[in-house]
Design goal:
Rossmann fold, five-stranded parallel β-sheet, alpha/beta, 12 strands, elongated, single chain
Length: 306
């Protein structure tokens, strides 16, 4: 089978070498498309491929239409909103992610961002400590649990909301379960978002929720840009001069937010959650192993389209 590694933002060289080694040993041919300037380059490259490994690359209906032999797409990472799942299903293409491989990198970033904002972005101004503060975690999956564990090690109190988990599962993960968004937001000095961008969550973090947070609170978003109602965020920061926002997914209105609110907001220039050498390698190797296993045994354990 021919496997294409298509990455506008390439894997580290060590990851590419490891991916190739796994695939070749599994009996597959490997092609590489890196730093391609146009989506049309991806459309052209998939014409004869059977499998595709991507990062944040967009697998649209156009890409799927152009890939008649494609059987599987693996997104090296947890999020998969860059893949048109409905179209993939219609084309008979299995889509997988690699959950857990980037989790520690994202969790460390979330904690670092909290401290960065607590210390007023490392300017000479007097900051505060995170010890003794309450961290609320919205979605308590792989990343959320790691964020909670690291926060507890810093002396923070940890609460979590996840409608897909029981109280016992949240408690066993080291957090106090809460059952409503109102309870989570009103009781959190720091609120860390780990929800996916789905129809029910897009724009759901809005003015009403953000302004429920206590005085001096900070909202931390290492999830997806789309879950934030950006107009609502701007209004919340206007009406509540004590609130802060930090993210590694730059909002469309970031220039305005910076101009209006200065050190109360910060966004990294690009998505940074998985940008560590370790996560880069882990996710890439996991993607390669899943493809080899799929063609050898039919294993669809991490399939995200049904």
């Amino acid at each position: 089978m021919k496997v294409l590694i298509a990455t506008q933002k390439p894997f580290a060289a060590a990851a590419v070498a490891g991916i190739k080694d796994i695939l070749v040993k599994g009996g597959h041919e490997v092609a590489l498309l890196e730093k391609y300037p146009e989506q049309a380059d991806l459309v052209k490259a998939v014409a004869d491929v059977n499998a595709l490994i991507i990062r944040s690359d967009k697998v649209t209906a156009e890409v799927l239409d152009a890939a008649p032999q494609l059987k599987i797409v693996v997104r090296a990472g947890a999020g998969f909103d860059n893949v048109d799942l409905a179209s993939a299903t219609a084309h008979g293409v299995v889509v997988m992610n690699t959950p857990g491989q980037n989790s520690n990198a994202v969790a460390e970033l979330a904690i670092a961002m909290m401290i960065f904002m607590a210390r007023t972005q490392f300017t000479p101004a007097t900051g505060s400590e995170v010890q003794g503060k309450t961290l609320g975690i919205q979605a308590f999956g792989n990343v959320g649990r790691l964020v909670g564990a690291k926060a507890k090690a810093l002396g923070m109190k940890v609460k979590a909301l996840d409608p897909f988990l029981t109280d016992e599962q949240i408690t066993s993960g080291g957090a106090e379960p809460v059952h409503t968004l109102d309870e989570l937001y009103t009781g959190s000095d720091y609120l860390s978002l780990h929800i996916p961008a789905l129809p029910a969550t897009i724009g759901s973090i809005n003015y009403e929720l953000i302004t429920k947070m206590p005085k001096g609170a900070t909202l931390v978003n290492t999830a997806r840009k789309e879950v934030i109602d950006e107009a609502g965020l701007e209004k919340a920061l206007e009406d509540r001069p004590d609130l802060k926002y930090v993210t590694d997914v730059m909002p469309d209105n970031y220039a305005t937010l910076q101009d209006k609110f200065g050190l109360r907001v910060f966004a990294t220039p690009k998505k940074m959650g998985a940008q560590t050498a370790e996560a880069n390698v882990n996710a890439g190797l996991a993607a390669a192993n899943q493809i080899v296993d799929y063609f050898a045994t039919g294993n669809t354990r991490f399939q995200v389209n049904k």
